[in-house]
Amino acid sequence: MADYLVIVESPAKAKTIERYLGKKYKVKASVGHIRDLPKSQMGVDVEKGFEPKYITIRGKGPVLKELKSAAKKAKKVFLAADPDREGEAIAWHLAHSLDIDEDSNCRVVFNEITKDAIKESFKHPRTIDGNLVNAQQARRILDRLVGYNISPILWKKVKKGLSAGRVQSVAVKIIIDRENEINNFEPQEYWSIDADFLKDKEAFEGSFYGIDGKKKELKTREDVDDVLKKMKGKQFAVDKVNKRERRRNPSAPFTTSSLQQEAARKLNFRARKIMMTAQQLYEGIDLGGKQGTTGLITYMRTDSTRISNTAANEAKDYIVENYGETFLGGQKKGGKQQGAQDAHEAIRPTSAMRDPKSLKSVLSRDQYRLYKLIWERFLASQMAPAVLDTMTVHLTNENVEFRATGSKVKFKGFMKVYVEGSDDKKNEKDKMLPELEEGMTVKAEEINPNQHFTQPPPRYTEARLVRTLEELGIGRPSTYAPTLDTIQRRGYVTLDNKRFVPTELGSIVLDQLRQYFPDILNVDFTAKMEEELDSVEEGKMDWVNILDEFYKEFEPHLEKAEKEMEEIEIKDEPAGIQCEECGHEMVYKMGRYGKFLACSNFPDCRNTKPILKKIGVTCPKCKEGDVVERKSKKKRTFYGCDRYPECDFISWDKPVSRPCPKCESLLVEKKSKKGVQIQCTNCEYKEDTQ
Hints:
- The protein is an alpha+beta fold.
- The strands form 9 sheets. Strands 8-9-15-14-11-16 form a 6-stranded antiparallel beta barrel. A 4-stranded antiparallel beta sheet has the order 19-20-21-22, with no helix packed on it. Strands 23-24-25-26 form a 4-stranded antiparallel beta sheet, with no helix packed on it.
């Protein structure tokens, strides 16, 4: 039997760590938490200082028995759960279950699963951090007090199966508030005047700026006409040319939040998928040969942009060797951001020398794409700023001023490796102007007034919502993905075109929470609670006092809601069609994945069917049915005949209502880099959409 027992959370990394440590160590996995609050009851004694009642999680008996047996035979047990609050709590529960003295040096933490990091961490074991444990307990108990008290009221008054969490309720509120903004939005008219200029056969674009050197807004067509009347002909004088050099700095390495935002923008990954794939990269990939299974990135739940000296030096060596010293930036090791816990490093590759191309053969497609993103972001963060030449030209006709701007990358710097994505998808391409000097004259070939209307704020994508929660101080790195998952599973919101849309059920629940539990939905209150819970981790506040203060304010609201909240009947909306099985009317029902059609004669008739969205195209195959939009098991949109299975027509591209003008065959919309293009499914006919 080995001298030492090491207990980690995940079986995936147990063998790797055991190989690094050698024959004297046996590594086993707890597979997450061993103990937790019971699911069937509150499990918190409010009268006894919020004392939690922990039980062995159902199904974990055999795991715990195996760990106890191994612990008895070992000279010493090391608890090596993940390096965060949750991991500290798991270690604390294991210590209690295995009769390990928590004041002994039994706790080992490491930020990456590499041989050097693992061996170094075992040279510095420590005691279990009581502040971290209390911080986790306080959050867990607070969430239990909120969820297990409010949810039963919602079951009784609204609908069974509902829940009201501390962070999830605020997330739903943010989504619904944005939807209300959109619905109440009144577009405002505004105009622009664009001109196509020509200088020695070189074309460039400019736009109206103002009059007499002062910026002027164009709100109506009359404003535009006034400007055009002031101009004489199409000759413009180059009044001023401003040239300057601009430096653009690289982004810091990833935090959990910035990784979720960037992977959503660039890879089209959902939050849950990002964290699952990152977990695989952290726990280790079999690289073959002597390397074996190796962790490729550091721990993926962090709010820090800090990196170690070793990582910075390794990145420096890689940059100099592969790009040259001119591409090396001043070594940036990051720092603590405001409100960040800064418990451990940013998300980075465990070795900068392990470039993505060298790993492509051993990684899945998703693993490769995410690793490449993390590696490029980290390497770029240590590179020199990009240098851009910018040029602004002031062009005047009488006292009317137009301006043209252009820029060109003079030195790529970090942009040689990586450019951060953007929600508004700004174009990174060079847009240069011809050589222009003050006193020159250029001609406007075209002057085009354009009418515009202001647009409502966009609905939240997962990336935007994560960024908003982070900016407001709501939730923490480990909670973003589970929160987004929960509000969808509960049916409070759905994703439409990758953007959150509140459901009727979500609006009903939020209205009740607004009325009876305003503090739970108050962003400032929730952010303040997060800060106080963080202060427990720092040893600055007592967790029982925090819970006591909260509960004193919370309990009267519970009593009021129990007495005064009226029962709400969510009526089924008639669908206007009959059930083909029993003849009763079909109705719209709300399910886990949104609305669906069901027979009103339930439970005698259990006929259900999805809601089919017609696109206004007759089925090209059977000529009888309508083409409808459907979703695959992987939520990918496709198009098929509503007479399925009688007609099996299917298309991944959206059919067009008119036939091909050349051969009368089916036209479909094809997405390309230029936008949407209409193509024939039979011949080579194509046309671009406007």
